[in-house]
Request: fold
Amino acid sequence: MAISPKTTLTNCQHLLCEEFALSFSKHCWTHLEFKADYTKQVEGFLKTADERSVCLNLRKAQLQDLNFSRLNLSGSCFNQAHLKHCEAIGCELSKSDMIGARLESCHFVGCALNGVNFTKAILRDCSFSYSDIRHASLTESTLHDVDFMGAHLYGVSLWGAEFNNVKHLKRKSFQDPQKPSKETQAAISESNHLMACDSYRMLKHYLNNSGLYEDASWAAYRELTMERKYFFEKKDSRYLPSLLMDLLSGYAAKPNRVIVSSLVIILFLL
Ligand SMILES: [Zn+2]
Reply:
């Protein structure tokens, strides 16, 4: 008999438990009796699944050697799950909950991961090649040996993220490919100016250490722009000097502004 996934969440049947039951089970991970068999149950579903959209609840589940390729699992819950040696090629996972998840040797290729919440997740030896990670949250996540070759990270939140041997991130990674070329200003999430300022500072160090000095100067300019916006918000007296520095020299990152402002000063003195 084919296993059908739960489309609506039901409560765990363990007495007094307030968690939702896992997909394909009557219990949550904590109260699941035969944990070793659970990977096989999920595997059985993945093998027979067609292209229908399925929302899975795999909260806290410990799973390995699964293949999620070409499935539409958007909005699924992987909260605090531990996935090992899993593969996902062309998989739709947008807006999934990966808060506190632990992903080891997992490979996402050409996946839709936009809006995924990776807050406090630990990613080790993973790749996100050519995946769409726009507007995802990597807040306070830890990334070891993670490859972002060709990935799109426009609007991603990076506050407090820890990078260890992260590969193939550059300014272009933070552009939005869906915007017309004139508006391809690379950016991370800037909704909180102070957090964005910290995140751009981290990116600046990362890009400098990668030898991408021009890309690092973009991050440095955005860092100081976020700082100026924060000063404005807080009515801080450092706002005006910061604004002047931007207008006169673009925080030393825009040579054209230095030339124009120097010419204006010379003409004024004449
Ligand atoms: Zn339970």
Summary: Residues 213-233 form the longest helix (21 residues). The chain has two domains: 51-189, 190-270. The pocket of zinc ion is lined by residues 12, 14, 17, 19, 27-28, 30-31 (CB under 6 Å).
